[in-house]
C-alpha cells in the first residue's frame, strides 16, 4: 500500500470536507452549496460509501479527499500530501530519512562488490565448491550476485574504509558489529553471501550461510533504516515480471529461490520465515492475487508451522477486507487465491526442482486452498469423535472463517466445518453464531466535532483507489512517456482527457505535470548536483536513459514535491515493457485507451448522478440539470468513436 492509499484509508471524506463546508444529509449522500462557485441550490454532493465528492453545478468537477483539499486550500500535490499526512497520523518519509537510506544502499553495494570478488578468488574456493554441489550455474550465481565473506573479520571493514565509508556508516548498515570497547568487527565471516534487494531493486541487506559448523546456520543483516526482514521477500525484484500472469510461489530459503529461477520458475520468492507479515502481503497484493506457499512435508504437521499458516491467512484476509470495500461494478477486484503445496517427504523445493521439474510444476498447479488444507490438518490435532475435540476444532477454525471478508465464502467454509464435525449448519450456528466478516481498522484520525457528520463511521475505500495499480492508466502514461511523437499527433484527443479521468492519485499527478500550463509537453530530466528530478517541457527522447541512470529517492516535480513512491512509479512507467507496435498501431492504442478511460469516468459520473437523482429528485427539478441524459449522450458518442477504432486498436495488456 502506498503512503497515499494509507492516508486515504485513515481519513473519512465526510469529516475532512465538513471542516470546510456545512453538510446536510440527503439520503445516503450529503449535500451543500458548492464551495467553489456561487449558487442558491445545493449542487455539491459527498458520497461517503464511495469516499468521493461531486459538484453537479457550474464546476462539474469531483474527486477524492486529496482533490478536494488541493482545490479548497489551493495546495499543490506535495503540500496536500503533508497536510493530510498530519491529519491522518500517517508519517511521510523525510528527505533526511531517504538520504540516509540511500547512503546505506550505497555502502551495501560496495560490500556486494567486495563479496563477489572474494567468491571468484582463491579465498572463495570452498564456497564455489559448495555451489557446484548444489547445482547452481554460473549465470544463476551472477544473476543473484552471490559472494563470499572472508573469515578474518577485518577485510570488509578495511575495504570499506578505503572506499571512504566510516565505521559508523558500516555499523548503521549492519555490516560490522561494534563491541563495548568500541572495536568494530565484520558481522559476516566465512559465509556464502546472498544480497537482498527490495522490490525496487535497491540493495538493503544481506543473508549469509555458514559453510562449516558455525552458528547460526543463516545470519541476516540486523534491522536497519533500510532493512527489515519482515518487509522483504527475497527475489521479488526478479519475480515481479512473472507475478501478474503466473502468481507468486513463496518458499523459505534462498537456495530454493535461486534453483527455481535457474530452471525457469521466475515467479518464486522466499519469505525468510514461514509466516507472512502485513508488509509482505502488501508487496504481494500489488502484483498478484494468486499466492502458493510451498511447505516441506516434515514441517507440515508441526504446531509452529500451523500457527504461521494461520497467521498468514489472517493477514491476507485482513488486507482483502480492507481493499474490497466501496468498489463498483466497473472495479471488481480479483478474488484472492491463497494455496499451499506440500512437498514430498525429505524434499525441499531446491531438491525437487533439480530432480523433477515436472513434479514441481504439478504440485504448484494442484495446490490446495489454504483453508481447505488447514481444516483436516487442524482436525488431526484433536480427537473429533469426542465433544471436547469438536469444541477445540471449532475454537481453532472459527476465527479463520470469521477472517474471510465475503459472506458467501464464509458460508461455504461454515458448511465444510459443519460436515467435518458431523453436525448440521443450524446446530453449529445455534452453538457459536454466525461469523461476522472482519473489517480492517482505519486507525486513529483527527475528528472534527461537526454534528451528525462527526460521528464515527467505517468509511469505505475510495473507488479512486483501485488496489495499488491501475493497468489501464499505467498503459496510457507509459505510451505517452515512451513515444515522443504521440502527443503532438493526438493533441485533440489528449485535450479530451482530464486529470480526474485518472483514478490513481499518483497517475493523476504525473499526467497533470505532463500537461502543465494547458498544453501537452515533453519531459526532460535535468542533471542536478542534489540528484533531484525535475519534469519540464522538453525532449522526451532521452527520458528513459536519464531516469534509470538516476538513483534519486525523491525530488520536486515542477513546483510540487515528488515523494519516493511517486518517483519510483514514474521510473516504472518509463521502463514499462510495451507490445511491439508500429507507429500507426501506437496511435490506435493510445486513442483506444483514452476512450476507455473517458468511458469509465462517465460511468462513474452516471452512478453518482443516479444516486443523487434517486435521493434528491426535487433538487434536480429545481435546477433543470440535464444530468443522466447528458452523460448518456456522452457515453453514446464515446462508444461510437471507440467502435470506429476497434479494428485498429491492439488488445490492452
Task: Write a concise keyword list for the protein shown above.
alpha+beta; 29 helices; 4 domains; 5-stranded mixed beta sheet; 5-stranded antiparallel beta sheet; 653 residues; DNA Primase, Chain A; Dna Topoisomerase Vi A Subunit, Chain: A, domain 2
Cα end-to-end separation: 22 Å
Shape: globular
How many strands appear in the DSSP assignment?
A: 20
CATH topology of the largest domain: Dna Topoisomerase Vi A Subunit, Chain: A, domain 2
Low-confidence runs: 321-334, 434-467, 517-562, 617-626, 645-653
Reading off the top of the CATH hierarchy, the class of the largest domain is best stated as Alpha Beta
Rounded radius of gyration (Å): 28 Å
- CATH architecture descriptor name of the largest domain: 3-Layer(aba) Sandwich
* Strand order of the biggest β-sheet: 1-2-3-4-5
Roughly what percent helix? 40-55%
| Chain-averaged pLDDT | 75
How many DSSP helices?
Answer: 29
The major sheet is characterized as: 5 strands, antiparallel
Describe this structure in words.
The chain is α+β, with helices and mostly antiparallel strands and 653 residues long. It folds into 4 domains: 3-88, Zinc finger, CHC2-typedomain (DNA Primase, Chain A, Alpha-Beta Complex), CATH 3.90.580; 98-222, DNA primase DNAg catalytic core, N-terminal domain; 236-432, Dna Topoisomerase Vi A Subunit, Chain: A, domain 2, CATH 3.40.1360; 466-653, no CATH class. It is built from 29 helices and 20 strands. The protein has a 5-stranded antiparallel beta sheet, sandwiched between helices. A 5-stranded mixed beta sheet has the order 13-12-14-15-16. A 4-stranded antiparallel beta sheet has the order 6-9-10-11, with helices on one face. Helix 1 packs across helix 4, helix 11 (254-262) runs parallel beside helix 15 (349-355) and helix 15 crosses helix 16. It is globular. Residues 321-334, 434-467, 517-562, 617-626 and 645-653 have low confidence and may be disordered.
Amino acid at each position: 500500500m502506498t503512503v497515499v492509499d494509507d492516508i486515504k484509508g485513515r481519513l473519512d471524506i465526510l469529516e475532512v470536507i465538513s471542516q470546510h463546508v456545512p453538510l446536510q444529509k440527503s439520503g445516503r449522500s450529503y449535500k451543500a452549496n458548492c464551495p467553489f462557485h456561487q449558487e442558491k441550490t445545493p449542487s455539491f454532493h459527498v458520497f461517503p460509501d464511495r469516499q468521493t465528492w461531486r459538484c453537479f453545478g457550474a464546476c462539474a468537477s469531483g474527486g477524492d479527499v486529496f482533490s478536494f483539499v488541493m482545490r479548497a486550500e489551493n495546495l499543490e500535490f506535495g503540500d496536500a500530501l503533508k497536510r493530510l499526512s498530519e491529519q491522518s497520523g500517517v508519517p511521510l518519509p523525510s528527505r533526511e530519512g531517504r538520504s540516509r537510506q540511500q547512503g546505506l544502499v550505497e555502502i551495501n553495494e560496495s560490500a556486494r562488490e567486495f563479496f563477489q570478488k572474494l567468491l571468484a578468488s582463491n579465498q572463495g574456493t570452498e564456497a564455489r565448491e559448495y555451489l557446484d554441489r548444489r547445482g547452481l550455474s554460473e549465470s544463476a550465481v551472477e544473476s543473484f550476485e552471490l559472494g563470499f565473506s572472508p573469515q578474518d573479520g577485518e577485510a570488509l571493514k578495511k575495504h570499506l574504509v578505503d572506499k571512504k565509508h566510516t565505521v559508523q556508516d558500516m555499523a548503521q548498515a549492519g555490516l560490522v558489529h561494534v563491541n563495548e570497547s568500541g572495536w568494530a568487527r565484520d558481522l559476516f565471516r566465512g559465509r556464502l553471501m546472498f544480497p537482498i534487494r527490495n522490490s525496487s531493486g535497491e540493495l538493503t541487506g544481506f543473508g549469509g550461510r555458514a559453510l562449516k559448523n558455525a552458528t547460526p546456520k543463516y545470519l541476516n543483516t540486523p534491522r536497519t533504516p533500510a532493512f527489515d526482514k519482515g518487509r522483504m521477500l527475497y527475489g521479488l525484484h526478479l519475480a515481479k515480471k512473472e507475478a501478474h500472469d503466473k502468481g507468486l510461489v513463496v518458499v523459505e530459503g534462498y537456495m530454493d529461490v535461486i534453483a527455481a529461477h535457474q530452471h525457469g520458475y521466475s515467479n518464486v520468492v522466499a519469505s525468510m520465515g514461514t509466516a507472512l507479515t502485513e508488509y509482505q502481503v502488501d508487496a504481494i497484493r500489488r502484483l498478484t492475487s494468486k499466492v502458493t506457499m510451498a511447505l516441506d512435508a516434515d514441517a507440515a504437521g508441526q504446531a509452529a508451522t500451523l500457527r504461521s499458516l494461520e497467521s498468514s491467512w489472517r493477514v491476507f484476509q485482513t488486507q482483502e477486507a480492507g481493499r474490497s470495500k466501496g468498489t463498483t461494478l466497473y472495479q471488481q477486484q480479483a478474488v484472492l487465491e491463497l494455496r499451499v503445496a506440500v512437498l514430498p517427504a525429505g524434499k525441499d523445493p531446491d531438491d525437487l526442482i533439480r530432480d523433477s521439474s515436472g513434479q514441481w510444476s504439478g504440485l504448484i498447479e494442484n495446490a490446495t486452498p489454504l483453508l481447505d488444507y488447514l481444516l483436516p490438518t487442524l482436525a488431526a490435532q484433536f480427537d473429533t469423535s469426542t465433544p471436547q475435540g469438536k469444541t477445540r476444532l471449532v475454537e481453532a477454525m472459527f476465527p479463520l472463517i470469521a477472517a474471510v471478508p465475503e459472506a458467501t465464502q464464509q458460508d461455504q467454509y461454515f458448511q465444510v466445518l459443519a460436515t467435518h464435525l458431523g453436525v448440521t449448519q443450524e446446530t453449529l450456528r445455534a452453538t457459536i453464531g454466525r461469523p461476522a466478516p472482519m473489517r480492517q481498522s482505519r486507525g486513529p484520525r483527527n475528528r472534527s466535532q461537526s454534528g451528525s457528520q462527526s460521528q464515527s463511521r467505517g468509511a469505505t475505500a475510495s473507488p479512486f483507489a483501485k488496489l495499488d495499480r491501475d493497468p489501464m492508466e499505467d498503459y496510457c502514461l507509459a505510451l505517452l512517456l515512451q513515444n515522443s511523437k504521440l502527443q503532438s499527433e493526438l493533441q485533440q484527443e489528449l485535450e479530451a482527457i482530464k486529470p480526474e479521468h485518472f483514478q490513481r492519485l499518483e497517475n493523476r499527478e504525473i499526467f497533470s505535470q505532463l500537461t502543465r500550463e494547458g498544453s501537452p509537453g515533453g519531459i526532460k530530466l535535468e542533471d542536478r548536483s542534489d540528484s533531484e528530478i525535475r519534469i519540464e517541457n522538453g525532449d522526451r527522447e532521452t527520458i528513459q536513459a536519464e531516469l534509470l541512470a538516476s538513483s534519486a529517492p525523491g525530488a520536486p516535480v515542477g513546483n510540487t514535491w515528488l515523494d519516493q513512491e511517486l518517483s519510483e512509479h514514474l521510473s516504472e512507467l518509463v521502463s514499462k515493457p510495451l507490445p511491439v507496435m508500429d507507429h500507426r498501431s501506437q496511435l490506435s492504442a493510445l486513442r483506444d485507451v483514452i476512450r476507455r478511460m473517458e468511458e469509465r469516468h462517465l460511468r462513474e459520473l452516471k452512478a453518482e448522478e443516479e444516486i443523487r437523482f434517486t435521493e434528491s429528485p426535487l433538487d434536480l427539478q429545481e435546477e433543470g440539470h440535464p444530468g443522466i441524459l447528458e452523460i448518456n449522450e456522452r457515453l453514446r458518442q464515446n462508444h461510437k468513436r471507440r467502435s470506429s477504432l476497434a479494428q485498429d486498436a491492439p488488445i490492452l495488456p
